[in-house]
Amino acid sequence: MRTVIIESAERLLMKNGVERTTLADISNEAKISKGTLYYYYKSKNDLIFDITERHLEKATKEILDFIYSIEVLDTDKLLSILYEKVIKDEMRNKLHLYLIQEAIRNNENIKERFINSYNLWREDIKKAIKSIIKKSDEDYDTISLIILSCLDGLIIQHILGIENIQLEKFAEYFFNKVGE
Q1: Which of 37, 94, 115, 149 has the maximum number of C-beta atoms within 10 A of its C-beta?
Q2: With a threshold of 0.90, does the pTM exceed it?
Q3: DSSP class of residue 42?
Protein backbone atom coordinates (compact mmCIF):
# COMPACT_ATOMS: atom_id res chain seq x y z
CA MET A 1 0.00 0.00 0.00
CA ARG A 2 2.89 2.38 0.76
CA THR A 3 4.12 1.98 -2.80
CA VAL A 4 0.72 2.93 -4.21
CA ILE A 5 0.58 5.96 -1.94
CA ILE A 6 4.13 7.05 -2.79
CA GLU A 7 3.63 6.64 -6.54
CA SER A 8 0.33 8.57 -6.39
CA ALA A 9 1.94 11.33 -4.35
CA GLU A 10 4.89 11.53 -6.76
CA ARG A 11 2.56 12.06 -9.72
CA LEU A 12 0.66 14.82 -7.93
CA LEU A 13 3.75 16.53 -6.56
CA MET A 14 5.32 16.64 -10.02
CA LYS A 15 2.11 18.01 -11.50
CA ASN A 16 0.97 20.44 -8.76
CA GLY A 17 4.00 21.06 -6.55
CA VAL A 18 4.34 20.51 -2.81
CA GLU A 19 2.29 23.46 -1.60
CA ARG A 20 -0.71 22.75 -3.84
CA THR A 21 -0.88 19.01 -3.12
CA THR A 22 -2.93 17.93 -0.13
CA LEU A 23 -3.24 14.59 1.60
CA ALA A 24 -6.86 14.52 0.40
CA ASP A 25 -5.60 14.87 -3.19
CA ILE A 26 -3.16 12.04 -2.62
CA SER A 27 -5.80 9.72 -1.11
CA ASN A 28 -8.07 10.42 -4.11
CA GLU A 29 -5.23 9.73 -6.56
CA ALA A 30 -4.35 6.49 -4.72
CA LYS A 31 -8.05 5.54 -4.58
CA ILE A 32 -7.96 5.01 -0.83
CA SER A 33 -9.72 6.68 2.07
CA LYS A 34 -8.08 9.51 3.98
CA GLY A 35 -8.14 7.24 7.03
CA THR A 36 -6.08 4.63 5.22
CA LEU A 37 -3.62 7.29 4.10
CA TYR A 38 -3.32 8.60 7.67
CA TYR A 39 -2.70 5.05 8.88
CA TYR A 40 0.49 5.00 6.79
CA TYR A 41 1.41 8.70 6.91
CA LYS A 42 0.56 11.07 9.75
CA SER A 43 1.63 14.12 7.75
CA LYS A 44 2.48 15.26 4.25
CA ASN A 45 6.06 15.83 5.37
CA ASP A 46 6.42 12.18 6.44
CA LEU A 47 5.19 11.11 3.01
CA ILE A 48 7.47 13.55 1.21
CA PHE A 49 10.40 12.36 3.28
CA ASP A 50 9.73 8.75 2.26
CA ILE A 51 9.50 9.77 -1.40
CA THR A 52 12.78 11.65 -1.20
CA GLU A 53 14.47 8.88 0.75
CA ARG A 54 13.31 6.31 -1.83
CA HIS A 55 14.79 8.37 -4.66
CA LEU A 56 18.05 8.91 -2.78
CA GLU A 57 18.36 5.23 -1.91
CA LYS A 58 17.83 4.32 -5.56
CA ALA A 59 20.42 6.84 -6.76
CA THR A 60 22.89 5.75 -4.07
CA LYS A 61 22.45 2.08 -4.97
CA GLU A 62 22.96 2.78 -8.68
CA ILE A 63 26.07 4.83 -7.99
CA LEU A 64 27.58 2.31 -5.57
CA ASP A 65 26.75 -0.61 -7.89
CA PHE A 66 28.55 1.26 -10.66
CA ILE A 67 31.57 2.05 -8.49
CA TYR A 68 31.94 -1.51 -7.25
CA SER A 69 31.40 -3.03 -10.70
CA ILE A 70 34.60 -1.57 -12.09
CA GLU A 71 38.13 -2.22 -11.03
CA VAL A 72 39.81 1.05 -11.91
CA LEU A 73 38.07 4.39 -12.18
CA ASP A 74 39.49 7.81 -12.60
CA THR A 75 38.46 9.73 -9.46
CA ASP A 76 37.58 12.81 -11.54
CA LYS A 77 35.15 10.73 -13.60
CA LEU A 78 33.68 9.16 -10.46
CA LEU A 79 32.84 12.49 -8.88
CA SER A 80 31.38 13.79 -12.15
CA ILE A 81 29.16 10.70 -12.44
CA LEU A 82 28.08 11.05 -8.82
CA TYR A 83 27.10 14.69 -9.23
CA GLU A 84 25.40 14.14 -12.59
CA LYS A 85 23.35 11.26 -11.16
CA VAL A 86 22.22 13.22 -8.14
CA ILE A 87 21.71 16.63 -9.74
CA LYS A 88 19.62 15.40 -12.68
CA ASP A 89 16.62 14.27 -10.59
CA GLU A 90 14.75 17.57 -10.47
CA MET A 91 11.71 16.39 -8.47
CA ARG A 92 13.75 14.61 -5.83
CA ASN A 93 15.98 17.63 -5.41
CA LYS A 94 13.08 20.05 -5.00
CA LEU A 95 11.50 17.76 -2.42
CA HIS A 96 14.87 17.41 -0.69
CA LEU A 97 15.18 21.19 -0.38
CA TYR A 98 11.57 21.51 0.76
CA LEU A 99 12.28 19.04 3.56
CA ILE A 100 15.48 20.83 4.55
CA GLN A 101 13.40 23.99 4.87
CA GLU A 102 10.95 22.12 7.10
CA ALA A 103 13.81 20.79 9.24
CA ILE A 104 15.19 24.30 9.62
CA ARG A 105 11.76 25.50 10.73
CA ASN A 106 12.09 23.20 13.75
CA ASN A 107 10.20 20.18 12.48
CA GLU A 108 12.10 17.88 14.83
CA ASN A 109 10.87 14.65 13.20
CA ILE A 110 12.13 15.69 9.76
CA LYS A 111 15.32 17.11 11.27
CA GLU A 112 16.11 13.84 13.05
CA ARG A 113 15.45 11.80 9.90
CA PHE A 114 17.76 14.10 7.94
CA ILE A 115 20.54 13.77 10.46
CA ASN A 116 20.28 9.97 10.26
CA SER A 117 20.15 10.01 6.46
CA TYR A 118 23.13 12.37 6.15
CA ASN A 119 25.16 10.13 8.43
CA LEU A 120 24.32 7.09 6.27
CA TRP A 121 25.08 8.96 3.02
CA ARG A 122 28.43 10.09 4.38
CA GLU A 123 29.30 6.50 5.30
CA ASP A 124 28.33 5.29 1.81
CA ILE A 125 30.43 8.01 0.19
CA LYS A 126 33.33 7.26 2.53
CA LYS A 127 33.28 3.54 1.63
CA ALA A 128 33.22 4.34 -2.08
CA ILE A 129 36.06 6.84 -1.83
CA LYS A 130 38.12 4.42 0.30
CA SER A 131 37.81 1.81 -2.42
CA ILE A 132 39.25 4.25 -4.96
CA ILE A 133 41.81 6.30 -3.01
CA LYS A 134 43.87 3.67 -1.32
CA LYS A 135 45.97 5.83 0.96
CA SER A 136 46.09 4.95 4.62
CA ASP A 137 46.73 8.52 5.71
CA GLU A 138 43.72 10.04 3.93
CA ASP A 139 40.96 11.68 5.99
CA TYR A 140 37.96 9.91 4.46
CA ASP A 141 35.49 11.42 6.94
CA THR A 142 36.39 14.93 5.83
CA ILE A 143 36.36 13.99 2.15
CA SER A 144 32.88 12.46 2.46
CA LEU A 145 31.63 15.57 4.29
CA ILE A 146 33.02 17.84 1.58
CA ILE A 147 31.47 15.75 -1.21
CA LEU A 148 28.05 15.66 0.45
CA SER A 149 28.17 19.40 1.19
CA CYS A 150 29.15 20.12 -2.41
CA LEU A 151 26.27 17.96 -3.62
CA ASP A 152 23.80 20.06 -1.64
CA GLY A 153 25.33 23.28 -2.96
CA LEU A 154 25.35 22.07 -6.56
CA ILE A 155 21.74 20.91 -6.27
CA ILE A 156 20.73 24.41 -5.14
CA GLN A 157 22.65 25.99 -8.01
CA HIS A 158 21.11 23.59 -10.52
CA ILE A 159 17.56 24.26 -9.28
CA LEU A 160 18.19 28.00 -9.47
CA GLY A 161 19.26 27.53 -13.08
CA ILE A 162 22.86 28.61 -12.72
CA GLU A 163 24.64 27.82 -15.95
CA ASN A 164 28.14 26.55 -16.64
CA ILE A 165 28.54 24.23 -13.69
CA GLN A 166 31.57 22.36 -14.97
CA LEU A 167 31.43 19.15 -12.98
CA GLU A 168 34.41 17.48 -14.58
CA LYS A 169 36.67 20.48 -13.89
CA PHE A 170 35.33 20.64 -10.34
CA ALA A 171 36.03 16.92 -9.82
CA GLU A 172 39.48 17.16 -11.34
CA TYR A 173 40.41 20.09 -9.09
CA PHE A 174 38.95 18.41 -6.00
CA PHE A 175 40.78 15.12 -6.42
CA ASN A 176 44.02 16.82 -7.40
CA LYS A 177 43.88 18.64 -4.05
CA VAL A 178 42.92 15.48 -2.15
CA GLY A 179 45.77 13.55 -3.77
CA GLU A 180 48.45 16.09 -2.75
Answers
A1: 37
A2: no
A3: S
